[in-house]
Amino acid sequence: MTNLTELFTTDTIFLYDQACLTEKDYFLPFALTDTLTTFSGLNEQPIIHFWQLDQAMILGMKDTRVTDLNSGLISLRQDGYNSVIRNAGGLGVIADTGVLNVSLILPNQDNRKMSIDEAYTHMWNWIKCAFEDSIHDIKAFEISESYCPGTFDLSIHGKKFAGIAQRRVKNGTAIMIYLSVNGNQQKRGETVRRFYEASLQENFGKNGYPPVDPSVMANLEDLLQKRLTIAEVKKQLISVLLDNSQITIDNQIVPTLLTSEKFTTEIEKQIKKMQQRNLLLN
Fold first, then answer.
1. Residue 13 near residue 248 (C-beta atoms within 8 A)
2. Of 90, 46, 44, nearest to 65 (Cα)?
3. Catalytic residue among 100, 130, 148, 233
4. Residue 159: CA count within 13 A, CB half-sphere
5. Could you point out which of 100, 105, 153, 228 has its C-alpha 20 to 30 Å from the C-alpha of 175?
6. Is 148 marked active-site?
């Protein structure tokens, strides 16, 4: 397994641990991703960003091209979920208080862009270091009947608990994962299935949209067979980076940077882009 500390170009990693966001602030973590990734590339500074949304389906751009988006949005509202379109392609995932989103933001090292698979593998290795043991082998392969299926779906005993995406901005790469930690994963899966059934109708499960089967996904705490909180997952992820290394985690710098004129201007620009993209939901 890759030594995680070899990924980092400095001895200090910036950490931004963001609170669970309500609907009025849904655009913020996506705006921050591009802003922090640009900063990371320019300053050769690795950053970790934890964030959550309270109750939403995060739609990919492909989701906006369904047969009847409005019917899908009505279905989501009936199930108690808001919606937001992210600034990346792909398909939708659920965000709520039992799901942790983590961005590992890395600058390109030695002016060499890491490959797409290298980036995914770094995140996979981090999760393995944090949660794998002799009984629970964490594998990466596509779970085709999950929501947002991909080559680097993470699973234990064939049940998916996480999916990975990435976004590249200039000289930085954001490797992003959602971890279904606790809560009602069955309901999440049923909600996404109903969204696609309503929005695709007779084309459900066709044209690259998944035939979502809620039974193929599970929470990490259920798969590990122990109670897990979001706070405990964050702590474990940071702990494995600090083990046997000289790395320091600084959680003070990013909040300070975010109050600077340069950052506030850039974030406002990125939020406007999100607002424009999300006009499709009106």
1. yes
2. 90
3. 148
4. 20
5. 228
6. yes
171/76: higher pLDDT:
76
CA distance from start to end of the chain: 46
Domain of 271: which CATH number?
A: 3.30.930.10
pTM value is 0.95
Rounded to 5 degrees, φ, ψ at 274 are -65, -40
Give the whole-angstrom CA distance, residue 227 versus residue 195: 30
- With bands split at pLDDT 50, 70 and 90, how would you rate the model's confidence at 245? confident
Q: Which domain holds residue 69?
A: 4-281
How is residue 101 written in tokens?
């989103």
Buried/exposed 95-107: b ≥16 CB within 10 Å, e otherwise: bbebbbbbbbbbb
Residue 157 CA: distances (Å) to CA of 59, 112, 136, 141, 152: 27, 36, 8, 12, 15
Compute the distance between CA of residue 204 and CA of residue 194 in angstroms, rounded to an integer.
10
In this prediction, residue 5 carries a pLDDT of 67
Q: What's the domain count of the chain?
A: 1
